[in-house]
Design goal:
Keywords: Repeat, TPR repeat
Structural class: mainly alpha
Mean pLDDT: 67
Protein name: TPR-like protein
CATH class of one domain: Mainly Alpha
GO biological process, one term: post-translational protein targeting to endoplasmic reticulum membrane
Strand order of the largest sheet: 1-2
Shape: globular
Low-confidence stretches: 1-34, 259-264, 408-414, 420-460, 478-484, 489-513
Radius of gyration: 27 Å
CATH architecture of one domain: Alpha Horseshoe
Helix content: 55-70%
GO molecular function, one term: molecular adaptor activity
Distance between the termini: 80 Å
Number of strands: 2
Strand content: under 5%
């Protein structure tokens, strides 16, 4: 019984000294555990991180549930600059409340139902207190997550005006749209929403049967991950306990397939990054999660480069990595913005420019001929546009930084703004012509992004506005054609956003401005 108590407490708080006190099937590992503990403590004090890391690894082989061991090995990994392993070990140190609740209940089942002696009464009281405390922590964690991202109100959820509803209503039209009008964003939203709904449906089927067995469907987490990477606009929380169901599904899948060493980390790190970015708005944490995911993906691609994709996993394909890089770039930019002037130290603009250049270079490659419309937008054109947008932001930030250091003379910023306006209009012109820039590999039969769609429309509105602002400050000559195009695109995007999705989208041309 003592071993059960120690095991449960280790799951609940992460502060147990050793879970090795439990008897193994072959022999007693108690003495081995204490001997390893003594040796590791001495090695850690001597800063012998290599030997200590090996000892902690041996201890984990004896008991892979002890939080202290993972914590100490994470410290050794960090000292040895093994950042990926250190991150993984640090995550294993956090409390596993779901597993703790199960263990507390199992411990209660071991206590006799009646005729308890004083020692058994004390154990039962401790178990009940532990279970109640753990349930309270689970409830508090779920409430905190829900407070960060409240569920969509039911009247809005069923109003038919969500992006997914509008995309579905537009599909009959966009299927017949001429090639010269470009690819509608309805393709990507509709495709992502189907994945998201499938994953959410599979997640709801997690339950226990009459015999206590857990019944669930695999790959629900993978479907949800693919959906938010395809287009994050489809993400919504429809139920108050959505996050609780997600955590239960993730824990169950991890347990069933040994996901910490298999499929789990690649997908889990991406979703942790998305939740940090979208739910808690902790952009620095999102950057860290995405960095770990990219590092793991690149390592896997290198190790299994000669293995077919159907065996190594779809997550190691170029499209998946490109989508993660695009999400990472967006989180990095927001981390720069929220650092309130201190981003030059932690998130330098030069690094933002490097990430944008890498993403643009990768996403500018032509997709395979049989690539569907949604994949073209999600994995090629939107990442390319995102990279250019970040480059534009980087140019602006550099100009503002230089102006602040020379703000005693207004003409200094005027000169900078004039140069910047030329750069911004050059960026805009290249993006505004999809036949010449976003998909030059299609030649005359190009299927560019329709400039009055919501997603790309935002880029077409933003860049001319930046050009206009910089030109006014720099007192440079305005280009009327660009100003007219900005007015046209802005009007089209606003009307599209305000018009219920009944299948048709307002269209405008330069002649109407």
């Amino acid at each position: 019984m003592e071993g059960v108590v120690k095991h449960v407490k280790s799951l609940n708080s992460g502060n147990a000294k050793w879970c090795c006190l439990r008897h193994a099937e072959k022999g007693d590992v108690t003495q081995v555990g204490f001997r390893l503990s003594f040796n590791m403590d001495n090695l850690l004090k001597k800063l012998d991180y290599i030997q200590a890391y090996e000892k902690y690894t041996s201890a984990i082989e004896l008991d892979g549930t002890n939080a202290i061991i993972f914590n100490n090995r994470a410290a050794c990994g960090k000292a040895l600059n093994r950042m990926l392993e250190a991150t993984s070990d640090a995550q294993m140190e956090t409390a596993n409340y779901i597993g703790a609740m199960t263990s507390w209940k199992q411990a209660l089942e071991c206590v006799p139902k009646s005729n308890l002696n004083p020692a058994e009464q004390k154990l039962k009281r401790q178990f009940n207190q532990g279970l109640k405390s753990t349930e309270g922590r689970v409830k508090a964690a779920n409430m905190a997550a829900q407070a960060m991202h409240k569920p969509v109100p039911q009247e809005v959820f069923y109003s038919g005006d969500l992006p997914s509803d509008r995309a579905k209503a537009m599909m009959p039209e966009v299927c017949d749209r001429p090639a010269e009008d470009g690819i509608s964003s309805a393709w990507i939203i509709h495709s992502a929403d189907k994945l998201f709904l499938e994953g959410a449906k599979d997640m709801k089927e997690l339950h226990k049967d009459a015999s206590g067995r857990t019944i669930f469907k695999l790959d629900a987490i993978e479907k949800l991950s693919d959906a938010v990477l395809t287009d994050k606009r489809i993400f919504r929380i429809a139920e108050p306990n959505w996050m609780e169901k997600y955590n239960n599904q993730l824990t169950t899948e991890n347990t069933s397939r040994g996901a910490w060493l298999g499929h789990g980390p690649k997908i889990a790190l991406v979703m942790y990054g998305f939740f940090a970015y979208r739910l808690t708005h902790d952009y620095a944490a999102a950057v860290t999660w995405y960095n770990s995911a990219i590092e793991l993906l690149e390592r896997g691609r290198n190790v299994w480069k000669d293995i077919p994709n159907d065996q190594s996993g779809m997550v190691f394909m170029d499209n998946f990595l490109r989508a993660v890089r695009s999400a990472h770039l967006e989180a990095y930019f927001d981390a720069c913005v929220t650092e309130l002037g201190k981003f030059s130290k932690n998130y330098p603009l030069d690094r933002l420019a490097e990430l944008a250049d890498e993403l643009y270079h990768d996403s500018s490659n032509p997709p395979p001929p049989d690539t569907d419309h949604a994949s073209i937008l999600s994995f090629y054109r939107y990442p390319a546009a995102n990279a250019l947008a970040m480059k534009s932001a980087e140019l602006y930030a550099h100009a503002a930084t230089e102006w602040m250091s020379q703000n005693d003379e207004l003409h200094c910023f005027s000169d900078l703004a004039t140069k910047l306006s030329q750069r911004c209009i050059m960026q805009y012109v290249v993006c505004a012509s999809p036949t010449e820039f976003l998909c030059p590999y299609y030649g005359q039969n190009s299927q560019g992004i329709s400039w009055n769609e919501t997603n790309m429309g935002n880029f077409h509105v933003t860049w001319p506005r930046k050009y206009l602002y910089a030109s006014l400050i720099g007192r440079s000559r305005l280009r009327l054609q660009v100003r007219l195009r900005q007015a046209t695109v802005t009007e089209a995007v606003l009307l599209y956003l305000l018009t219920p999705g009944h299948g048709r989208m307002p269209r405008f041309s330069m002649s109407k401005s």
